[in-house]
UniProtKB/TrEMBL annotation:
It is an enzyme of class 3 (hydrolase). The lineage of its organism: Eukaryota, Fungi, Dikarya, Ascomycota, Pezizomycotina. The keyword Glycosyltransferase does not apply. Its EC number is 3.2.1.21. PANTHER family: GLYCOSYL HYDROLASE, LP05116P. This is Peptidyl-prolyl cis-trans isomerase-like 4. GO terms for molecular function: cellobiose glucosidase activity; peptidyl-prolyl cis-trans isomerase activity; RNA binding. Plays an important role in cellulose degradation. Shows hydrolytic activity against several glycosidic compounds. It comes from Cryoendolithus antarcticus. It catalyses: Hydrolysis of terminal, non-reducing beta-D-glucosyl residues with release of beta-D-glucose; [protein]-peptidylproline (omega=180) = [protein]-peptidylproline (omega=0). SMART domains: RRM. Residues 508-680 form the PPIase cyclophilin-type domain. One of its GO terms (biological process) is cellulose catabolic process. It holds the Pfam family Glyco_hydro_1. SUPFAM superfamilies: (Trans)glycosidases, Cyclophilin-like, RNA-binding domain, RBD.
Length: 1063
């Protein structure tokens, strides 16, 4: 097993907040904050105290810095007292230079001590002057302007030395505890026993919204005015704790767990990362949750360079089956400390709300990472109080074993999340450096790793936990760094007794660094081969290929298997020197690797040699240089076939980039992913005779260069002359463009002339919609089709699109103007699309293209995907001829899709979503009345959508002759067009039945071959129609197209569970 660990540069330290430790609230010109005012109200603080003195850090900060040095901290997170810097707080109010200088000196001394400052601008202590002047956080316009000015003052004063900025700490607490419960300043609540002012049903949501806007505005200022010259990053810190269902068998409790996380975390996280509030909040709160203006959304969305995470504990969650009360802020649920069976979620602490649950820490940070696209995360607070600590003797307080255990368990969980779950966590700040003023709990609760003697001049005494944290990090960081400290082979503690000895190799790839531990005891021959090939730089510039998402990828052939120049690679013993990529000893190209029957490809990141069956002895398998790394867990197909010799211990973000890369049909990434460099961290083996060590970074060979498609580091020259750029791009990347569309469409050959009026747009923001692009690009001319391509199962954007213009000139203008433009905070790439195939000639004829694509998205990439599938899988049956002399009624119409393996949704939901034609309908033996045309009504489809419960099979298509419906494989008929006159006028029509499997879908279609140009003209000029389906207008379009080489007429609407496609 891999050992959970942190890298050498992991940033760890301690956190505090200004009002909780500084004191000196009237010293050197500091103005009052609304916490000073709140503390003066009797009954608001448990022990009647305030932050008037606190830890006296305003005067004793040198002792704090000395303490940090003694504890080995790499970082210190602290906050700024706004009212100390700008006493009244406003944008036109004077700056208090003495107060500002305190922070300048503090930062200077921290940097001198080698400690990284992490600065929080706002940790709940708003200047009282702003609260009095205009209501403070309740006034978005005034407050945002004042906050931005405050932020700018701090950026100017500290920015050269501060590289980690946090705009807000826990806006949930400011909003809910300050404006709903009334437990925090300013104490607003609807409970008139606690406060004469406040509206718990609206004020917290207003305050939260205003904080987000102010955060976004400050980030914009930092990025535009300071980031480039100061080189820092900026984010926000959000709080939230893990949830477990009170009843694990209750679907309602399970859903409530997710809802609680959304009301706590996603309230702020979703607008920043997704541009909107969670649907669960909008559903419960309605218009009480503010709407986003486009201006505010632009400020907030994408405004995090990193995610600051505060978490302490977990709760059991029980759903409330009744409608939510107006003042509810949790998501209409109960937070409990024991589950249905009476099991406590954790041990008691001094804080009633806090029960340690370290496994929840790992689950929560993984949840955050997954929901927000694997952001960089800093844990900015985590810690615990100790039951009865304040009542203990000083000696007992200093011996805080409970807190030590808390940190041990939670840091282990964090290391596991980083190592095994691929979470990109970069730092951890323990709460707190000092015992301090714990807000409404006063000084009765202690969270510090340092005891502060409040009656003895605030003298500091480090507790056992203060020293333990550094030791814990030394151990966890040691797990991955000790390999390079000694040549002696060692056995990691988690491997003891298992016969596993680990060496390490670093693969620097274009997707990121990957560190591999090698099992030199289990697989010495494989490890020696791999280490020596790395040492001679044999793998440098080797491509990644055969990518199978969630399964594995392969590398190790230095040229790549697609090249005619490739010899497949060689073992170290088949090579003549350290600089050659060519084997000269055929009898030693391969070797017999160790294939352990005990070792399995059970975990993501398992590394093994690719093998082949020996031609001499079929019981033997042979290996050379090529190796595999798994991209999923429990890849049993490789067990006993690939020779396991190591595991990835670092670089799971790189694995994920490879796993999600665009690939062609052979598994080759569209944009090259290559091994750029290899570093052997420890090598216990003697070099083979005649092996020459290669240069540090040998250049790629001519054969390797010839395999480049789109280079891994390729960036378009944004400043190049447009005409020159066009010529260069067409010449240099024609093949790469073809491969791009080969991935997503139908390209029978690659070297074709690009179409003249279709643009390929990529690098889109996932939130960008069809209508957004159409609106933006329509200024260049009329758009016939515009579609963002989406995943067939999830419906998520794949971040590329096709846009078809009416004219070549409009398309070219857009091409030259839109390259590199920012859309939804993403800098897009624009290029001309390749021609899809000869089969699209009819589809693109001047008459039909205008009628068939009257609505954005129709006839776009969906049809390319379907056409590719049809070409690959269509199975033509014997044609059926319809003679014009017969009394025949031919109808063509709606095509519904068999989705037997896809779960159905309730009919009510289907009807709601039918407007987008993107929800499944299901099969039923309904045949419309022979005498009715459903051109106006589509009664059969209407009946189908109205049925509850829905049948369990899907209906497919469509044709009937005479009075007898054609029902194939139990699939019924729905008609749209009555074409008797066309049949009589244009003679024989050839009808072909085809069955087309598409994954879980099975399409049964009838195709009519239009023999003459007159037939094609008539069909091609039929007007578009709209049918009324269950009260919803459904577009019916006519167009000419081709399937499997036939110039055929097809008019179909495919309705599937997650996605609609029109053909």
């Amino acid at each position: 097993m891999t050992t959970a660990s942190f890298p050498k540069d992991f940033l760890w330290g301690f956190a505090t907040a200004s009002y909780q430790i500084e004191g000196g609230i009237k010293d050197d010109g500091r103005g009052p904050s609304f916490w000073d005012t709140f503390c003066d109200i009797p009954g608001k603080i448990a022990d009647g105290s305030s932050g008037v003195t606190a830890c006296d850090s305003y005067h004793q900060y040198p002792a704090d810095i000395e303490l940090l040095k003694q504890l080995g901290a790499k970082a210190y997170r602290f906050s700024i007292s706004w009212s100390r810097v700008i006493p009244v707080g406003g944008r036109n109010d004077p700056v208090n230079e003495k107060g500002l200088q305190y922070y300048v000196t503090l930062v200077d001394e921290l940097v001198k001590a080698g400690i990284e400052p992490m600065v929080t601008l706002f940790h709940w202590d708003l200047p009282q002057g702003l609260h009095d002047r205009y209501g403070g956080l309740l006034n978005k316009e005034e407050y945002t302007k004042d906050y931005v000015r405050f932020a700018r003052v701090m950026f100017e004063a500290l920015g050269e030395k501060v590289k980690l900025w946090i705009t807000y700490n826990e806006p949930w607490c400011s909003s809910v505890l300050g404006y709903s419960i009334g437990q925090f300043a300013p104490g607003h609540t609807s409970d008139r026993k606690k406060s004469p002012v406040g509206d718990s049903s609206r004020e917290p949501w207003t305050v939260g919204h205003n904080i987000l806007v102010a955060h976004g505005a400050a980030v914009k200022v930092y990025r535009e005015e300071y980031k480039q010259k100061q080189g820092g990053v900026i984010g926000i810190t959000l709080n939230g704790d893990w949830t477990e269902p009170w009843d694990p068998e209750s679907k309602d409790d399970i859903e409530a767990c997710e809802r609680k996380l959304e009301f706590a975390i996603s309230w702020f996280g979703d607008p920043i990362y997704h541009g909107k509030y969670p649907d669960s909040m909008r559903k419960q709160l309605g218009d009480r949750l503010p709407e986003w203006t486009e201006e505010d959304r632009a400020l907030v969305q994408g405004s995090n360079d990193f995610y600051g995470m505060n978490t302490y504990c977990a709760n059991y969650i029980k759903n409330i089956p009744h409608p939510a009360k107006p003042e509810d802020f949790t998501g209409n649920l109960e937070l409990l400390l024991e589950n249905k069976d009476g099991k406590s979620i954790g041990e008691l602490t001094q804080s009633p709300w806090l029960r340690p649950y370290p496994q929840g820490f790992r689950k929560l940070i993984k949840w955050i990472s997954d929901r927000y696209g694997k952001p960089i995360i800093y844990v900015t607070e985590n810690g615990t109080s100790v039951l009865g600590e304040n009542d203990k003797t000083k000696e007992e307080i200093l011996n805080d074993d409970f807190r030590v255990k808390y940190f041990e368990d939670h840091l282990q969980a964090l290391a596991e999340a980083r190592t095994f779950d691929g979470v990109d966590v970069r730092g951890y700040m323990a709460w707190s450096l000092l015992d301090n003023f714990e807000w409404a709990e006063g000084y009765e609760t202690r969270f510090g790793v340092t005891y502060v003697d409040y009656e003895g001049g605030q003298k500091r005494y480090p507790k056992k936990s203060a020293k333990a944290i550094g030791q814990i990090f030394d151990k966890l960081i040691e797990n991955i760094t000790s390999h390079s400290k000694t040549k002696n082979i060692h056995i990691p503690s988690t491997h003891a007794g298992q016969g596993l000895i680990a060496m390490s190799v670093l693969l620097e790839t274009s997707a990121g660094d990957i560190t591999i531990d090698l099992f030199v005891t289990d697989a010495p021959k494989c490890c020696e081969n791999f280490l020596k090939l790395c040492k001679i730089k044999y793998y440098n510039f080797s491509p990644v290929y055969d990518v199978q998402p969630n399964f594995s990828f392969q590398s190790g052939d230095p040229i790549g298997p697609d090249s005619k120049d490739s010899d497949g690679g060689s073992s170290i013993w088949g090579l003549p020197s350290g600089t050659s990529k060519r084997a000269t000893r055929p009898d030693r190209i391969v070797f017999k690797p160790e294939i352990s029957r005990k070792r399995k490809h059970g975990e993501r990141g398992t590394v093994s040699m690719a093998t082949t069956v020996s031609k001499v002895n079929s019981d033997d398998r042979l290996a050379g240089s090529q190796f595999l790394i798994t991209l999923g867990d429990n890849i049993e197909d490789l067990d006993g076939k690939a020779a396991i010799f190591g595991e990835v211990v670092e670089g799971f973000d790189a694995l994920e980039k490879i796993n999600t890369a665009f690939i062609d049909g052979k598994g080759r990434p569209l944009q090259d992913i290559r091994i750029l460099h290899t570093v052997v961290l420890d090598d216990p083996y003697d070099d083979p005779p005649e092996m020459l060590e290669a240069p540090a970074s040998p250049p790629p060979s001519a054969e390797q260069q010839a395999t480049v498609r789109i280079a891994h580091d390729e960036v378009l020259e944004e400043d190049a002359d447009p005409e020159k750029l066009e010529g260069l791009r067409r010449e240099r990347e024609a093949r790469a463009q073809a491969l791009t569309l080969e991935l997503i469409g139908d390209l029978p050959f690659a070297e074709v002339t690009p179409p003249e009026q279709i643009l390929f747009v990529c690098k889109l923001n996932p939130v960008t919609r069809d209508e957004d692009l159409e609106l933006i690009f329509s200024r260049f001319g009329k758009i016939l089709s515009c579609e963002v391509i989406r995943d067939k199962k999830s419906g998520d954007s794949l971040q590329y699109a096709f846009i078809e213009f009416a004219t070549k000139e409009d398309c070219e203008r857009a091409y030259f103007k839109m390259q590199g433009v920012l859309i939804d905070d993403h800098r897009i790439h624009v290029d001309f699309s390749q021609s899809v195939s000869k089969l699209s000639a009819d589809w693109r004829n001047s008459t039909n293209s205008k009628t068939a694509r009257g609505k954005g998205g129709f006839g776009g990439i969906d049809s390319l995907e379907r056409r590719q599938q049809l070409n690959e899988t269509a199975d033509s049956a014997t044609p059926r001829n319809l003679d014009s002399g017969q009394e025949v009624e031919v109808r063509f119409g709606v095509m519904l899709v068999d989705v037997r393996e896809i779960a159905m949704s309730p009919a009510t939901e289907m009807r709601e979503m039918a407007a987008g034609v993107n929800e499944a309908v299901t099969d039923v033996s309904i045949v419309e009345d022979e005498k009715k045309s459903c051109l106006d009504d589509l009664p059969a489809l209407s009946q189908l959508l109205a049925m509850e419960p829905l049948p369990d099979k899907m209906l497919v298509y469509h044709h009937r002759a005479g009075n007898s419906p054609i029902v194939a494989n139990g699939l019924a008929v729905i008609s749209v067009y009555k074409l008797n006159d066309l049949v009589a006028e244009h003679g024989d029509l050839q009808v072909t039945r085809k069955t087309i499997p598409r994954g879980a879908l099975k399409l049964d279609i009838l195709e009519v071959d239009l023999q003459t140009s007159a037939q094609r003209d008539v069909f091609g000029t039929m007007p578009n129609q709209e049918a009324n389906v269950a009260g919803i207008k459904v577009p019916i379009r006519i167009w000419l197209g081709s399937v499997a080489g036939l110039a055929g007429f097809k008019e179909m609407i495919i309705v599937s569970k997650k996605r609609s496609a029109k053909m």
